[in-house]
Automatic annotation (TrEMBL):
Name the record gives this protein: GNAT-like C-terminal domain-containing protein
Lineage: Bacteria, Bacillati, Actinomycetota, Actinomycetes, Micrococcales
Domain GNAT-like C-terminal intervals: 128-280
N-acyltransferase N-terminal domain location: 8-125
Organism (species): Agreia pratensis
Signal sequence range: none
Pfam families the record matches: GNAT_C (PF18164), NAT_N (PF18082)
Amino acid sequence: MAAAYDQDTLFGLLAIDEVDRADCARLLERTDDAEQVAPVVAALRRSFGSFNQIPVDEPTQDPLVWLKAFFTLTPRVVAWSRRHDIPDRVIRDTLADVGRHLAISRRVTGEFGLQTWRWLTYHFTVRIFALGRLQFALERAAPATEVDGVIKAGDWVLAVHIPESGPLLPSLVDESLAAAKQFFAERFPQHPVSVVTCDSWMLDPFLLDRVAPESNVGSFVRRFTPIGHSSDGHTDALYFVFRTRDLSRLDELPRDTSLQRAVLERFELGETWQVTWGYLKL
Ligand SMILES: CC(C)(COP(=O)(O)OP(=O)(O)OC[C@H]1O[C@@H](n2cnc3c(N)ncnc32)[C@H](O)[C@@H]1OP(=O)(O)O)[C@@H](O)C(=O)NCCC(=O)NCCS
């Protein structure tokens, strides 16, 4: 195992906010969780570098046990990434999602926690990379996302994700897509990719009619060709726009922006937001 980092280095690398550092330090100092953490570390290591061909087992659903496992595995993630010539900037930008998601959890619940620990299993099995504004996960296409002449089940594709890190300017999206094309061809030529997929509530056609066509969101969504596959998104849209999944709070949520109004309108119509799939060619 790569050598552990000192606390400041670790917390700096994971971009953990000051307000979360004391709780993280306490978590690191705990020794009574070793028996729970070990199987989680083992589950992540089994899947490590397999780009999700080996799914991650979930020996527990305790978020802080997962967080402790992420801390434990950080040196290994960095060592693996350096061996694969991943630039330090990309490693840092990718791992900064830990601090970002601790901050989101605090905003949502008012306390220290990591509601989205499952999402961070991508980072700690080294299957996702932040390249500029967007994040890209290398993975095999599922049968449900086949498109004649474009995507076959089992093809390597890049699933794109949008972190909450400022406006989604088209120029930044262009730069990220260009960076992804070069990065994956150079670093992982054994897994050739030519298609980016997106599965998101943002691709639900309901949204496109309700945000300005020239908006960042509208321009992003229009880059994708529908794959013709979708599933119920339940409270996803609510969570991403309002950071709550509490349907009893709809009346009190703000309606200041077109995005907020669109999300609420769909619930008020008694409809379900769809997680819709689309693709674009790199
Ligand atoms: C996706 C995201 C980057 C878009 O931000 P953006 O570039 O500022 O969006 P736009 O400029 O196109 O905004 C279009 C409209 O939506 C509003 N809007 C954008 N993001 C918003 C948010 N998080 N909450 C409320 N309103 C938002 C804008 O104010 C604008 O409203 P208007 O038409 O009334 O002026 C931003 O919403 C975000 O960070 N979301 C969280 C991450 C996320 O949703 N990821 C996708 C997960 S599947």
